[in-house]
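Quick one:
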Amino acid sequence: MDLNALRDGNFSQLGEAITDWEEMTKKLDTLRADARDNLKAKADKANWAGVNAQVSREFIDKTAKEFADAHTQANTVAKILKDTRGELVDYRTQLNEAIARGAAKHLTVVDTGHGTFTVSGNTRPDWAADPSGNTGAVDQKDVDGLRDEIQRILSKATESDSTAAKALTLIVNQAKYGFSSAAYGDRDAAAKAVADADRLAKILKKNPHDVTNTELASLNSALAKYKNDPLFAEEFATQVGPKKVLTFWAGIADPYQGTYDPERAAQAKRLQKNLGTVIGRATLSDSDRMQGWEKRMIGLGPHQLGTDDANDPLGYAVMSNLMRFGDYDDQFLNDYGDKLLAYDKQVNGQPMSPWINNLNQGDLNYWGYKNDRGRDPMTGFLEALGHTPEASTQFFAQPDGTGDSVDKDSEVNGHLKYLTKERVWLSDSTLEGNHDYVAGRNSLGRALEAATTGYSADAAAKDVTAGDGRTAATAGVMEQVAYLYGGKDGPKMLHDQPELADSLGKMAGAYIDDLDYELSGIGDHAKDAGDFPARYAGRAQFGNQGAIDFLSVLGQDEHSHKAVTVAQHLYTLSMLDAHPPTTEAHMNHARDIMSVGAEARGILDHSRAQQVATTYGENSEEANKALGRSADWKKLAVGAVVAGGVAAVPLPGSTAAALVIAPLAADTVTDAANTMLGHQIDKSTDDAEDDPLVPSQMASQKFYGRGTEDLGTTYDSYFAHHPQAQASADAQRWIEEIKQSYLGVGSAEDDFRGRPPYKD
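Output:
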């Protein structure tokens, strides 16, 4: 900054601009609150249907968010401008005071342009005749002292001005369209984030083997601190550059460089998560330099990095392990995934996998390492999709032009078909791991969970119960999944891909209302949308036979059987709770609800019983134990969290984020847990406590007996306080109808309906 620019600076116009920004912030705050409390709140409560429910509500949600972002950006700009103006005014005061003190010592300060200036003594010719003997000589220490003081002031003023300009430019460029959500309280906070990013980027530019554990610990702490800071993330990523990000992680991750150091391994594990998270945050920026960064990163994918570390891996192998963590831009993930799958298809099925082979010791993953060394880049990429629902839905989107339901292979997304039916998957476990377990297939299941439910596979109950995440797009993915796994190859696919079983069960559970709707008619006719209303626009369409086939396949596996059964149970109870036996109309609804719920349960239970008999031999000890475990599904309901028209059911033996999601009747949100739904959950707890986890004997007869007992308990609970209504239902032979719905359907193709059990 030039000396005269600061010395004579008139900041009145900047002050006026700040006032304008502050006024704009107040107005935007009003608009933000109005958009949130009126526009969005009313849209959330509106009982819209069809296109209006999907398109209009989504548009309103995005509009409300834009108002919030606009307020955030305006508030941040106003605060940075105000803080910067205050600092510059203070520096101007300091400068003028310093020059005045210098003048008193006969020192002159002259601006020489381009940020330079001179300080010199002001010697008068008549001082030689001064009677006091003062010659007017200037002390050089005073000259140097004033020069240094002014330089410090100008340097600080320059830093204040330039860092504010850089921060404001970064904020504005974050969003090419709309507004940035970057929020800072003052210039110092924004400037520090950018400065720290530049400082830490220097660590990654070093040879990773020269980086000490202390430096790694410092790097981890800073990355964790700034993980949600958009300016830091963009500045850090662009300063390091895409290739150096990859080579640095390859060097840190490589466990074969020198002697194994537990402390370094611990820091490396933290770094994988922290670095991946910050890089993900950086990709959310729409700035030109980040768009260029992303293109260069994708371009590095099919090429070796030219490093001695980790077997000189391809870019895909490294980046996929970093993107296991963080929130990545949807389009970046899709562009990256398109290129990764195109490359993977070229090498798929080769005699030696380019990813997993005895020569490749380039372990790049520290999380779940025993069963997932990180050599297969598809695993990390699918993990990224698993916690980025919109990107996953887009990646597995139903092809354009597909009809009401998927009924042929050409209507299946190419990525989905390749990953489920064509790709050769290999175990990436260590010697201590499970060699029968394929981590990549488990990650595929998690990606499909996100794509079909609209929630991250890591979502907690509080996230899920915020409301239904399904859309016409997620339903489009679900229709494809049901077609593939409910098809003639479904039993074999489920048997060969056991890692997907729990995910498939969770997906079906999330769509149990749509599956029940498909079962409610006569074939594909007379389906009852009154009894089983659509909860979102563009509901999934499976077809009557498609729903039966899909449920019959999922019933074959213990894990998918449990997940779908508990979802069906909770959905049925919530629907009955919404239609108490107080009117004839309610009872008509209840009759259909119980009958269809019994049919779905019957398909699942018959399928499970026949698969167990086929696998272990009927009435064998192993068959009895397997049926015992399957009959114990009610324990899952104990921890159900009910809100927002959704039940979130934690899976035992998993983290709290492993949830079965079950849609509930929308108008039971506030009281379902305290009425019949809550009663049934409590009762299931009692039943679970009465019976051991794995009974020594559990013949199919007893298995079906438990099924009919569950249906009977539900029937009695529904009529508990309405004896006259129960008498009417008994007279109308509801009991026989429900029993027939449960016992009269199955999975054996030659006996009932659905897919036959899998046979080796």
